Amino acid sequence: MISCTPKPTIPSPSASSSPTPAVFLTSIGDFPAGEIIADDQIDLEHLDSYFTISAIDDSLMARIYNKSYRENDNITLDELRYLKILHYNFNHQIQVGECIVNKEISDDCIEIFTELFRNEYEIQSMYLIDDFWTGDGSSTDTASMNANNSSAFCYRVIAGTTKLSNHALGFAIDINPYQNPYITYQDGVPVYYHNDAENYADRTVAKPHMITHDDLCYQLFIQHGFTWGGDWKNSKDYQHFEKSE
Question: 87-97 burial, b for 16+ CB within 10 Å, e for fewer?
Fold first, then answer.
């Protein structure tokens, strides 16, 4: 008689078993600007966790004091707010961003940046302008633009003038400045304020990340009551959105 060893029985997967639920980040508060976040760490149903507004605390004041902020008669630290956000960079990675704006427009800005993120709109980077500090507001602004950094508050004058900029009051934001240059004209001749700006002066030639009237960034800022520097008559500031007090 030939004896046979019975084949072991392999249990079938339980019908009630389910994949392990994703573990999402609950906050980006501890992540510095520029940090790349994996897509599967973001809870798209609760984006408000990643788009926050806070007052200027002591550690933040130490970063900006005597740089983008200095003692003045026009704006106090209490009137400013720090925003932490997410955005897609030009490699279409999710990246942490930061900016400082006037508290009066902070809610508008959070709504705008949340919607831009939801639509996977690309912003190269968003660091405080203090990270590019050169010693004064105007040359620092140029350094930030040359790095294609999107920024907001900086207590400075308008480039080429002695007039205080709306950036000085936290009411203006610049988006992707490299592709959206600031251009003034002297006797009809264009004057550029950052590297390679002339390659983006012709707005009839569509190039990636150029802001136009059809662009989502333009549409969202306008819906929230901002005006666009691309519509100015005597100069053009295609990166620039501002809102009156």
Answer: bbbeeeebbbb
In the chain, the N- to C-terminal Cα span, in Å, equals: 99
Instruction: Read off φ and ψ for residue 187, nearest 5 degrees.
Output: 55, 40
Per-residue pLDDT of the chain (245 residues; tens, 9 = 90+): 444 444 455 555 554 556 666 789 999 999 999 999 999 999 999 999 999 999 999 999 999 999 999 999 999 999 999 999 999 999 999 999 999 999 999 999 999 999 999 999 999 999 999 999 999 999 999 999 999 999 999 999 877 778 899 999 999 999 999 999 999 988 889 999 888 999 999 999 999 999 999 999 999 999 999 999 999 999 999 999 999 86
Give residues with Cβ within 8 angstroms of 15, minimum separation 6: none
